[in-house]
Specification:
Blueprint (H helix, E strand, L loop, with lengths): L3 E5 L3 H13 L3 E5 L2 H11 L3 E5 L7 H10 L7 E6 L6 H8 L3 E4 L4 H9 L3
Parallel strand pairs: 1-2, 1-3, 3-4, 4-5
Helix pairs in contact: 2-3
Length: 120
């Protein structure tokens, strides 16, 4: 059975890129376009990993991650921050906030699969 990865990303092109690379490498991909949808999808599908954009409309990735962490059923799922924030200290800030990993945009498709394997 394929591992399930939830991609929470408001940019359609980024979702498509992530979906294509992950599906090609044998993962099942679930998608949401904002934090509210991501929270609902996480509860419904109980993914093995979540790739979470930080800046999204309706509910941002940081707020969504915190709500997931508070949920007894899904709170232990690994969540990777996907962000264009790439200044000194940003990685540590997101890891300290509760994310398990950090990946900057633009997404490195060559390294994506190996990066995901570290968390599954």
């Amino acid at each position: 059975m394929a591992h399930k990865i939830l991609v929470v990303e408001d940019n359609e092109n980024n979702r498509k890129l992530l979906r294509e690379v992950l599906v090609y490498n044998g993962y099942e991909v679930i998608e949401a376009v904002n934090g509210v949808g991501g929270l609902g999808s996480a509860k419904e599908h109980k993914p093995d990993l979540i790739l979470m954009d930080i800046q999204m409309p309706v509910m941002d990735g940081l707020a969504c991650m915190k709500l997931i962490r508070e949920d007894a059923d899904i709170g232990r799922v690994k969540i990777i921050a996907l962000t264009s924030f790439a200044m000194k200290g940003d990685r540590e800030r997101f890891l300290d906030a509760g994310f398990d990993g950090y990946m900057t945009k633009p997404i490195d498709i060559d390294g994506l699969t190996e990066f995901v394997k570290e968390f599954i």
